[in-house]
UniProtKB/TrEMBL annotation:
<dbReference type="Pfam" id="PF00617">
    <property type="entry name" value="RasGEF"/>
</dbReference>
<dbReference type="InterPro" id="IPR000159">
    <property type="entry name" value="RA_dom"/>
</dbReference>
<keyword id="KW-0344">Guanine-nucleotide releasing factor</keyword>
<dbReference type="InterPro" id="IPR036964">
    <property type="entry name" value="RASGEF_cat_dom_sf"/>
</dbReference>
<dbReference type="Pfam" id="PF00618">
    <property type="entry name" value="RasGEF_N"/>
</dbReference>
<feature type="domain" description="DEP">
    <location>
        <begin position="150"/>
        <end position="225"/>
    </location>
</feature>
<dbReference type="InterPro" id="IPR014710">
    <property type="entry name" value="RmlC-like_jellyroll"/>
</dbReference>
<dbReference type="InterPro" id="IPR019804">
    <property type="entry name" value="Ras_G-nucl-exch_fac_CS"/>
</dbReference>
<dbReference type="InterPro" id="IPR008937">
    <property type="entry name" value="Ras-like_GEF"/>
</dbReference>
<dbReference type="GO" id="GO:0005085">
    <property type="term" value="F:guanyl-nucleotide exchange factor activity"/>
</dbReference>
<dbReference type="InterPro" id="IPR029071">
    <property type="entry name" value="Ubiquitin-like_domsf"/>
</dbReference>
<protein>
    <submittedName>
        <fullName>Exchange protein directly activated by cAMP, isoform H</fullName>
    </submittedName>
</protein>
<dbReference type="InterPro" id="IPR018490">
    <property type="entry name" value="cNMP-bd_dom_sf"/>
</dbReference>
<dbReference type="InterPro" id="IPR023578">
    <property type="entry name" value="Ras_GEF_dom_sf"/>
</dbReference>
<dbReference type="InterPro" id="IPR000595">
    <property type="entry name" value="cNMP-bd_dom"/>
</dbReference>
<feature type="region of interest" description="Disordered">
    <location>
        <begin position="106"/>
        <end position="125"/>
    </location>
</feature>
<dbReference type="InterPro" id="IPR000591">
    <property type="entry name" value="DEP_dom"/>
</dbReference>
Length: 947
């Protein structure tokens, strides 16, 4: 979408939900210089379409009567034959009081029909549903009137009502009598009344005061032609007219007979609920059964809907039903005709047809309308449910899945989810999958700009995971397009301007939330910084965006802080010491704590070759394996082309793992005592580990016994808090999907994970390298206490590492040692082991950690397992759409990290005994990470007892 995005401007003259205007939209495309009128329908084309639909319906009806066809679901709302009979019975049996009664709708009477919109809030069943009668209806009306006027005994007479002369009018009862007598096909009075109503709903006939639909009562009705007066109305018909009318009457009666039941049904659906009789409701209910959009609803809900569905008819193609951005007030089912779904910046994205429904997204999400709905044809018929009824009856039972299409393809799939705590609405649609651009549009159009306070979970998920499906550069491009949606506008109406300003505000809000969610990572791409600066300049220059200046300034300040920090720490160098010690800062201006490893920081490390000679290299962290390989081969004079070489890690147990050429973050990704080798591909098997890899890594030599356990736990926690703090949530994504997909480093996460292994193997190394039994017993007790303190400090990463170290096979087999551990300690240790028990997906730990409040250091390997589980168990793309459920799962895990760090660490320091020593000791442990070596050492200190 980015560069080639077409721009459409919308000129909206008037019209909104409930008071639609006519032919109001003009869409202009701004891709080239050519203006293109897009959505205004040619009336002739639309009329043709409508006529086509009518004749098809008649044909269908005839076929139905001949029993040649079964009724399809969700065609135009025309009554089933069974119900026609039912209705005929109802009306035949109804004991209606004839004669003039009080006005049914006093308000309707007071309002001039000509001034009323065709489908107001409360449609008036006394008024026509078309602007003008169709030629066919006009002709039917003409034939009936001609015969009525020619009949001397006819009821059509000039009458005086309340002192006023009304020409050629007749009471409903007499019109019904006449029709029943006229035709043998009309068996019941109700059938006749329906036929007159069919004429009334097209305006061929009308109640004299426009207050009543057709009723078999003494209300007076007259033909439109007589209302207008003129020559056509005057006098007795000529013989040739009479002949023509007689010739036409059979066909006219047959057509009216067909239309009568539908006209009656539409009349019922335009009456206020309280005026619908139980028989009428039954009739409506029977018809709702045939509507596909309601097929998933229960009988009781359909019964409820029978009383609140409102029938709307719109005469003109081009009418706007509602506008994008409007408040959602109703849900609609299209009974006849078609509508265009129009989106700012895109034009018409979909056309909905008979049987389709629309408009529940805004109702369920309490969000603005996601699109403008424009009638594509003349004479569209809709069923409407208003918001209050929708909320009461449908909100909780509405279909679970909503699919939005554009140009015939799914672009957004939403699913209804149960209310989350603190949410304002009972149920919300959440995004299950979508195209990246549509999801962004959905966010900007409907999820921003209204709620204050907390972050919308969908927005947060999107911000945390968009790098998987929408690279930053593309996101910025899209945002810039949205922000500059008025760039090609010459003249703007006030409505346009308001819409555009609101949109700009939402882009600014999005930017603010983006920075809030991902912090400095948002500024790492230069295009983002450029965009923010542009944004700031435009906001300052636009008085309509006055209120947004503080938001933009805040973002600018954070960006400046990030840039300052970056400049200050530029040129940071790290070192991977040769003897397996942890990665350490080699030179740089950064404060020793909370130092983040950045992609362009240098790292110094060794690369070995098969004969164990090595070279020392210095490269930025983001350097690819391919470059490192080539450079090392050159320095080590391997004289082979890059295609023959591989970069490989040889672990302390001799295991080899080859790096992909496009992988980055290589030195930090090594295991504790692993070494980096460059090798000829074919000689990979010849690589052996260095002798030093079997020895402990270099660490501070100190007598552990003299160090305070609490102080150890305290400094381990401070140290690990800093490492944890430096890890960005994005690193979890890079780690899970593979760094090479993003070209981004995971150095901070690597260092944190290395630390976990370091602590774990330190425990084992210390124990198996202590020959004295009593000292070993003392150490085990110390480590159990250490685990307890780590747990108390909520450093669960270290807690796991210590307990796992104590459970290591090389330690658990030290029978003599464990026998001497007091039962109190053994019990505590058992409890700890139960806590790290991996069964039922680490349930014990999850329950425990779920009760903790931040700050806390989580057991990181489990978070990575959750990420991997989500990744491997779910496809990233489903039928060409981003599987956003997967993104949501991943974002949940990423949010855990945010939660753990949401409060700063403020531990009470234990009274210091040997602070300096402890600090230097815990920063680099002596560690053997080769299980075979550890087990052998364990055997040595406690040989297996012979039975
Ligand atoms: P709502 O947002 O309430 O109002 C506009 C309606 O258009 C929307 O609900 C959907 O029901 C319907 N619609 C159909 N296709 C799309 C689409 N591609 N994008 C947005 N809305 C659509």
């Amino acid at each position: 979408m980015a560069a080639g995005r077409q721009r459409w401007s919308t000129q909206i003259v008037a019209g909104s939900e409930r008071s639609p205007g006519v032919l109001l939209l003009r869409y202009r495309r701004h891709s080239g210089g050519d203006d293109q009128v897009g959505a205004t329908l040619g009336a002739s084309k639309a009329t043709k379409a409508a006529t086509g639909a009518t004749s098809a319906a008649v044909k269908w009806r005839r076929q139905l009567e001949r029993g040649q066809m079964t009724r399809p679901q969700s065609t135009a709302f025309e009554m089933s034959n069974k119900n026609k009979e039912l209705m005929n019975d109802i009306f035949t049996n109804c004991k209606l009081k004839n004669g003039f009664g009080p006005s049914v709708q006093a308000t309707a009477a007071a309002t001039s029909p000509t001034k009323r919109p065709l489908s107001p809030d409360h449609p008036n069943p006394a008024l026509p549903i078309t602007e003008t009668p169709s030629p066919a209806m006009n002709r039917m009306g003409w034939a009936l009137r001609t015969l009525l006027v020619a009949d001397n005994s006819s009821c059509l007479k000039d009458r005086k009502v309340s002192g006023k002369l009304i020409r050629k009018c007749a009471p409903g009862t007499e019109l019904v009598d006449w029709l029943v007598n006229l035709s043998p096909i009309v068996h019941t009075r109700a059938q006749a009344a329906g036929m007159w109503q069919a004429l009334l709903e097209e305006g061929v006939l009308a109640h004299v005061n426009k207050e009543q639909p057709f009723k078999d009562k003494c209300f007076l009705y007259r033909f439109r032609i007589d209302e207008e007066g003129g020559t056509a109305a005057a006098g007795v018909p000529q013989a040739e007219d009479l002949g023509a009318a007689n010739e036409h009457i059979r066909e006219a009666l047959s057509a009216l007979f067909q239309r009568g039941p539908d006209a009656t049904l539409r009349m019922i659906l335009r009456k206020p609920s309280h005026e619908r009789t139980s028989e009428e409701l039954e009739l409506v209910f029977e018809e709702l059964v045939h509507i596909a959009a309601l097929s998933h609803l229960s009988t009781s809900i359909k019964r409820e809907l029978s009383s609140i569905f409102v029938f709307e008819a719109h005469a003109q193609a081009g009418t706007i039903l509602f506008n994008q951005g409007d408040e959602g007030r109703s849900w609609y089912i299209l009974l006849k005709g078609s509508v265009d779904v129009v989106i700012h910046g895109k034009g018409t994205v979909a056309t909905l047809k008979t049987g389709d429904d629309f408009g529940k997204l805004a109702l369920i999400n309490d969000a603005p309308r996601a699109a403008t709905i424009v009638l594509k044809e003349n004479n569209c018929h809709l069923l409407r449910v208003d918001k209050e009824h929708f909320n009461r009856i449908l909100r909780d039972v509405e279909a679970n899945t909503l699919r939005l299409q554009e140009h015939g393809k799914d672009v957004l799939v939403l699913e209804r989810v149960a209310k989350q705590r603190g949410q304002h609405s009972a149920f919300k649609y959440t995004v299950m999958s979508g195209t990246p651009a549509k999801m962004l549009e959905h966010l900007l159009e409907t999820r921003l700009g209204q709620s204050v306070g907390g972050m919308d979970p969908f927005l947060d998920d999107f911000l945390l995971t968009h790098i998987v499906f929408m690279p930053v550069v593309q996101l910025v491009d899209e945002l810039a397009n949205y922000f500059h949606c008025d760039a090609h506008e010459d003249a703007q109406t006030p409505e346009d301007r308001e819409y555009i300003i609101n949109f700009k505000k939402r882009v600014i809000q999005f930017m603010q939330k983006w920075v809030m969610a991902v912090r400095h990572a948002a500024f790492e791409e230069p295009s983002v910084c450029d965009f923010i600066e542009d944004l700031a300049a435009e906001v300052e220059a636009d008085p309509d965006l006055n209120e947004e200046t503080s938001i933009v300034h805040n973002v600018l300040t954070q960006m400046a802080r990030y840039q300052e920090d970056r400049n200050q720490n530029a040129g940071q160098k790290w070192k991977l010491p040769p003897n397996g010690q942890p990665i350490c800062l080699f030179s740089g201006n950064a404060t020793p704590s909370k130092t983040v490893i950045r992609p362009d920081d240098d790292i110094i490390f060794r690369v070995y070759c098969a004969d164990h000679t090595y070279c020392t290299l210095r490269f930025p962290m983001h350097t690819t394996a391919e470059l490192i390989k080539a450079c090392a081969a050159d320095k080590l004079q391997l004289n082979r082309g890059p295609e023959d070489l591989v970069l490989v890690e040889v672990k302390s147990n001799g295991e080899r793992s080859v790096f992909k050429d496009n992988d980055v973050s290589i030195p930090t990704g090594l295991s504790l005592n692993g070494r980096l080798f460059v090798s000829v591909k074919d000689h990979l098997d010849a690589l052996t580990q260095l002798q030093e890899q079997e020895c402990p890594t270099e660490g501070v030599d100190i007598d552990l016994e003299i160090l305070s356990t609490k102080e150890l736990a305290y400094h381990i926690t401070l140290f690990e808090w800093d490492l944890f703090w430096a890890v960005h949530e994005y690193e979890l994504l890079y780690h899970t999907f593979g760094r090479h997909h993003f070209g981004k480093i995971t150095a901070n996460l690597d260092v944190f994970l290395r630390r976990f292994n370091e602590v774990q193997y330190w425990i084992v190394t210390e124990l198996v390298s202590t020959p004295s039994l009593s000292k070993r017993v003392g150490l085990v007790r110390k480590f159990i206490k250490l685990a307890a303190y780590c747990k108390e400090y909520q450093n669960l990463n270290a807690f796991f590492a210590v307990v796992m170290g104590l459970s290591n096979m090389a330690v658990s087999r030290l029978q003599q040692t464990w026998e001497k551990i007091p039962s109190k300690f053994r019990k505590i240790f058992q409890e700890f082991e139960a806590l790290i028990d991996p069964s039922r997906n680490h349930r014990a730990y999850r329950v425990f950690v779920g009760k903790l409040q931040p700050p806390l250091i989580p057991f990181m390997p489990l978070l990575l397992k959750d990420m991997t589980f989500a990744h491997e168990g779910n496809k990233t793309s489903l039928d060409g759409l981003v599987n956003f459920e997967k993104m949501h799962m991943m974002a949940q895990t990423m949010r855990t990290i945010r939660f753990c760090r949401s409060r700063s660490l403020g531990l009470e320091p234990p009274s210091p005994k040997s602070e300096g020593e402890v600090r230097s000791y815990i920063s680099s442990f002596r560690v053997i990470d080769n299980q075979r070596v550890l087990t052998a050492m364990s055997q040595k200190v406690e040989p297996t007892r012979k039975l």
